[in-house]
From TrEMBL:
DNA-binding region location: 36-55
Keyword DNA-binding: yes
Protein name according to UniProt: TetR family transcriptional regulator
KW Secreted (keyword) present: no
Signal peptide coordinates: none
């Protein structure tokens, strides 16, 4: 069992360890729905109550992971479009699709952010998540605007659709054990569990081309970067 962190540096490292453990468990177990506080603390060698010194709840830990996902996505897009310009809608869609599918835990978390995580933390923690996610959203639109031929309004539509499609698509493409067993019994139903990355890229390419052709560059209200659950 690890000793209690005492210095600010030790505390920051312990917080990072918890985040890395949660992300690794989400990957190994097949989704964040299977993550428990006990599993995360055991992975990091902490006592179960030790996590409370860093995150007040499972929801706050996962919301922090989602917030990091936004920054990772922004950084990945920045790297992908560095030294590039004049990208057509197909190229922009490719950058968006490839960078977000490289962050599978983030795609998974997008669903949980909307359904539970934002609503089950303190208001100030939710405010911080909103602030950081909107900042990343705006930065992504700006990066793609400077690198390509799509307008900001077209890009906002594309990113909004990306969030919704990546969120729902990841869940469908990664069925629970019960559904996976059901699809083995009834193969005709299994087609819904599509190959996530190529399907998302195809849909975003079609959407980007359509937006580029039909959406004028007009000012529209900003939308919440989190997908809306039905």
């Amino acid at each position: 069992m690890k000793e209690r962190a005492r210095s600010a540096q030790d505390k920051a490292q312990r917080s990072e360890d918890l985040l890395h453990a949660a992300e690794a468990l989400a990957t190994e177990l097949g989704g964040v729905r299977f993550i428990t506080v006990q599993a995360v603390t055991e992975r990091t060698g902490l006592h179960r109550t030790g996590v409370r010194r860093y995150y007040s709840s499972r929801e706050e830990l996962l919301l922090e992971l989602a917030e990091r996902g936004w920054e990772q996505w922004r950084a990945a897009i920045a790297a992908a479009v560095a030294q590039r310009d004049g990208l057509g809608p197909e190229d922009v869609a490719g950058v968006v699709a490839e960078t977000i599918t490289a962050l599978p835990v983030f795609c998974d978390l997008l669903t949980h952010v909307t359904l539970t995580l934002e609503g089950d933390v303190a208001m100030e923690r939710a405010r911080r998540y909103k602030t950081e996610s909107f900042a990343a959203y705006d930065a992504i639109v700006d990066l793609l605007d400077r690198a390509g031929s799509m307008t900001p309004d077209q890009l906002r539509g594309l990113i909004a659709a990306t969030l919704a499609l990546a969120s729902s698509g990841w869940q469908v493409a990664h069925p629970t054990p019960t559904l996976a067993a059901l699809y083995e019994q009834v193969p005709a139903w299994g087609h819904v569990a599509f190959d996530f990355a190529p399907r998302l890229k195809l849909l975003l390419t079609a959407l980007a081309v359509g937006l580029h052709n039909v959406v004028p560059d007009t000012v529209v209200p900003d939308s919440d970067p989190a997908p809306t659950a039905d």
